[in-house]
Each structure stands twice: as structure tokens, then as C-alpha cells.
Prior knowledge:
With 286 residues, the protein is mainly α. The chain has helices at residues 6-33, 50-55, 59-90, 97-105, 112-134, 146-173, 178-186, 191-202, 204-220, 223-228, 240-250, 254-285. The radius of gyration is 23 Å and the shape is globular.
Amino acid sequence: MKNRDLSFWLFLAPVLVAILIVVIYPLLTGLYYSFTNWDGLRISKFVGLDNYIKLFHDKEFGDAFWFTIKFSIAAIIVINIIGLGLALIVTQHIKTSSFLRTVFFMPNLIGGLILGFIWQFIFTKAFASIGESIGIEGLQGWLSTTETGFWGLVILTSWQMAGYVMIIYIAYLQSVPEELIEASQIDGANRFQRFRNITVPMIAPAFTVSLFLTLSNSFKMYDQNLSLTNGGPFNSTQMVAMDIVKTAFTENSMAYAQSKAMIFFVTVAAISLLQVYYNKKKEVEL
């Protein structure tokens, strides 16, 4: 850093100022508000840890947090399996690979709210019609129970994010040296052995990036949750982001909502950093 000249800092200054204004200042301000009784307009007193103590006795927030964790685990696994599978398909030198990449990526271009309403129609209308015509009761009444609402959110998120994750895996799959693949074929390694012992270690950085993105996106999801289930039935599919917004703008408990947001931020940051650290460590070992 000692060798950096003035031009370096001049180019860097706008970014640092933007981070300070958009990220650091709001974070510190929100932390301060979480120790007060701020109602969105004024602060009449400093309440210390009262909001945090109340938070840990809030069953609705606890249920939302647990539902978010379960959803994130399922979504991360499904999205990355499908994304990697699609990447393997479109890197097989088939004639329609470019077309398939476009088709698989397109759902990611649809907004979360619109996507939620589309899948709400599919689950409630299309599934019900199919179930009625072929006599499968399980397809009727989707999104009316916690279990179907849970898997509805997983399906929606996987359909939207799999194509995006596919692009990341494609970038690393195309960087795997062909010489290693050809040498392993000469040595008699089958397709699964080549994938396990050559491809997976070579694309290890892709797992780090993809897991980080899917983890943070799954934990912070709000639009799809709002438009698909709106937290129903009886708030059983309500995720943390929706619970925070509801506390702030429906119950008008801004300071309490901010305390929830701070706990949420710390949790997501800790899990994300641990995941990146663990995956980076595995990359070094490989």
C-alpha cells in the first residue's frame, strides 16, 4: 500500500465514499436505533437491550428463522445440483448448447414478484386441474399447507436461480485442461472417475462462489415469499425478511424490527464467512 500513488486513491475514493454512505453509515445508524424506541419519526428514550431480550422470546420470529434455515438448506442443495447438471449438459459440445444456455438462464431475468405470481397460478390452478383430471388429490390445494408451501418456494427459487449458477459452473468447467481428461481416458478412467477425481477438484472455486451466492440469496429472499404464499397459512411459511418488514411497516415497531435485522445480518454474515473459509481451505488442500 505504501507504493500507491495519488491517482490510485483518487480512482478509489468514489467507491469508498459510496460504501461509507450506502453501507457503513446505514449499518451503524441501524445498530443505534435497535437500542432505542424509535418509531420511524423520533426517539424518546434509550432502551438498551430490551429489544433484543424481547426478540429472543418472540415465537413468531423464531419460527420464521427456523423456516428460513430449512428453506435455505434445501434450496442451496437443489439449486447447485441442478445448476451443475445443466452446466455439464451444455458443455458437451452439442449443437444446441448456446440455445440451451439462453433458455436455462432466462428465468433469472424475471422479477421476483412476477415469478411468484406465475408459480402461484401454476400451483393453485394448473396443479389442481391436473390432479382433478388424473385423480391425484396431492396435487390439489397446493400452497394451502406448510409442507407444500415450503416445497413450492424451493421449486420457484430453484427454477429462477439454477440458470444463474449454471453460468458460474460453465466458466470453470471450460477451464479444465483437455489434456488431463484425455490422459485419464488413456489410463482407463470411466466418466464418473474423471468427474470425481479431475473435474470436481478443478472446479472447486466454483462451489465457493455458487454456495455463497445461493446461501445469501436464500436467506434474504422476500419478493418470492410475498407473492407466492404471503407467509401463509397462518404465517407458517413466513421467512425472516418478511417478518422484519411486517414488524416495521405493519406493526410500526421500527426499533424492534431493526434489532431483528441486526441479528439476521450477524447470522447471515457469520454463516457466509464460515462457508467461504471452509471452501477456500478445501481449495488449498486440493
